[in-house]
From TrEMBL:
Function noted in UniProt: Required for the efficient initiation of filament assembly.
Pfam families noted in UniProt: FlgN
GO biological process, alphabetically ordered: bacterial-type flagellum assembly
Family to which the UniProt record says this protein belongs: Belongs to the FlgN family.
UniProt keyword annotations, A-Z: Bacterial flagellum biogenesis, Cell projection, Cilium, Coiled coil, Flagellum
Superkingdom of source: Bacteria
Name of this chain's protein: Flagellar biosynthesis protein FlgN
Coiled-coil ranges per UniProt: 33-60
Length: 160
């Protein structure tokens, strides 16, 4: 059990979270560059690094959640605002928290961009496969659960 006083323990967790988030940001940037250059080896390395950083951040988030709960705070943004109001008279924790929020927001945007690149590439491959199979236009429909599926009429390429 950690006997470090609450604000110092929280500072340690937040500071480590910022370091991990910054490393995640770097991994996402590397992933984006690898996607753009179609460098499979670098992509695999960046994805492995990204997964490692996400796991570390999840563990730190669990520690932060446990710490806040133990002190009687909510484990959301309002709870952190209350913690900072109650415990950060010297203004030490607020800049670390703000930096973590900023970096994680940037990570979210990078991940969305990378996901968009992957989805666009997947669609191009899918279209090429449909052409090679001799399939005509694809119509995207939705089932009763709202899930998309494609209805296509096909004609073998040999009959085209």
């Amino acid at each position: 059990m950690n006997h470090t006083p609450f604000p110092e323990h929280l500072d340690q967790i937040l500071s480590q979270s910022v370091r991990e988030a910054t490393s995640l940001e770097s991994a996402l940037q590397r992933e984006g560059a690898a996607l753009a250059s179609r460098d499979l080896d670098e992509l695999n390395a960046a994805v492995a690094d990204k997964q490692s950083r996400v796991q570390a951040l999840e563990a730190l988030t669990r520690q932060q959640t446990e710490l806040l709960q133990r002190e009687g705070y909510e484990t959301n943004a309002h709870g952190m605002d209350c913690v900072l109001r109650d415990w950060d008279e010297e203004g030490v924790l607020r800049p670390v928290w703000d930096r973590l929020v900023e970096v994680m927001s940037h990570c979210h945007r990078l991940n969305q961009v990378n996901g968009g690149v992957v989805e666009t590439s997947r669609r191009r491959v899918d279209q090429a496969l449909h052409i090679l199979r001799g399939e005509e236009s694809r119509t995207e429909l939705y089932d009763t659960r709202g899930r998309a599926f494609s209805a296509s009429s096909s004609r073998p390429i040999t009959k085209a």
